[in-house]
Write a structure and sequence with these properties.
There is one protein chain. The chain has 137 residues and is mainly beta. The chain has one domain. Strands 6-5-4-7-8 form a 5-stranded antiparallel beta sheet, with helices on one face. A 3-stranded antiparallel beta sheet has the order 2-1-3. It is globular. The protein binds zinc ion. Zinc ion binds next to loops.
Length: 137
Amino acid sequence: MPNRPQPRFPEPNSQPFWEGAKRGELLYQQCNSCNGVVFYPRMLCTHCGSLDLAWKQSKGEGTVYTYSVVRQNRNPAFSDLGAYALAYIDLDEGFRMMSNVIGVADPTKDVSIGQRVKVEFEKQDSGDYPIPVFRPV
Ligand SMILES: [Zn+2]
């Protein structure tokens, strides 16, 4: 999947996330006031409204919360993929993110709710920022 859309900057809330992805790190935020975990990247805590958020590195391990298989996508960045799994992943640190489950022979049969997965960073022909995707472990 080498040609996905790239982030556009300046984007102060998510740029640290993407710089982390460049280093092979999956980053999330945690509130210094209430310890709430925040994802996707934002300016303020979604639990208490504090502006005091810290960036943390996830181990990148989690479980498939739910998924769907996209069988056809006409967007040029995705049209050559064939069927692929779009999933919500529950990371062990307590946040949920949308991504793809890759590396399975048949996404209609080889992805399941509760499946353990681990992040990897897919390099893109479309730019410098790799995309975090998940592979079953
Ligand atoms: Zn908070």
